[in-house]
Amino acid sequence: MSEDEPIQSDDLRTRLHAMETRLRRMRDQRSNHNENAKRAADSRDSVQNQGKELRERIGERLEEQKEVRARAKVHQARRDEIQKQIGELIQQKRGRRDEGNKSVVIELSETVGEIDRIENQIMTDGNLSLMKENRLLKKLKNLISKRDELMPAVQELQVIEIDLGDMEGSIQLLRSEADAQHQAMLDANKEADQIWEDIKPMLEERDFLRAEGDRLHAAFVAARESADKVHSDMKELLDQVNQIRDELKAQREERERIIREHNESVREATKTPDQDEELAESLTEQLLESGSITLGGTRANSSDRDMSRKKKKSRRLGTTRGKRD
Asked: Using an 8 Å Cβ cutoff, are 104 and 150 in contact?
């Protein structure tokens, strides 16, 4: 391991610490953005729910106003029809008839009157020829069909049936009913106008809630985009952090390898023969080959050992001569 490696490791650790600190800050920022987005979304949903409920109430009120307006139009149609009948009765009273624009009530009254006349003639006139009676029956059939066609229109308008025999009484009755229908029309329109006055502030509140919902939704989107941006930056920074961690791990593993190999070398150098299997095997082979082995000294020559033994033996067996007194 070079002398620069500890310096590089310290630099990497310093950078790693700074990056991890920055990551913690970015996590807090992302959490804040997500929390802001959640609050904005909750507020938006609440406002939108209020707007939905308000729109439903507005719809109900508008439908109610529509029904009142329709009722006013019915009263107006009845008034107009009655006034038309009055005009026709006045014309008839003066001896003038307008065949081109009769009211349905006048037309129905005339048709019913004609039907009654023909039926009475058929039943009471004994001088009718067969041919004339058939013509009257055919005409009666057509009148009955016309009456059946006019009846639904008259019933729909619910106008007053008049008596053509009492022109003045019918005109007064129709005028009274026309006034009543006109007043009913005015009352219905007034009611519809009041409903609209009630609806107008609801429409203003609806527009406010819609704008507020749009604002909160924009705030939600902005907060989410900010959170996504921080998350993206965190991913890039985390890649760098993992890269530095991998480098530090590699350096640590390299130091551990060097220390392990050094310790192994020291252990090998300090082994005694009884701990060194290879040395023990080598000595065993020498002993088997030569018959003797010396540890820690030199091995003596066999001829030197024989000569030494002979010298010791001759000194023990020899005699000593000397001068005798």
From this structure: yes
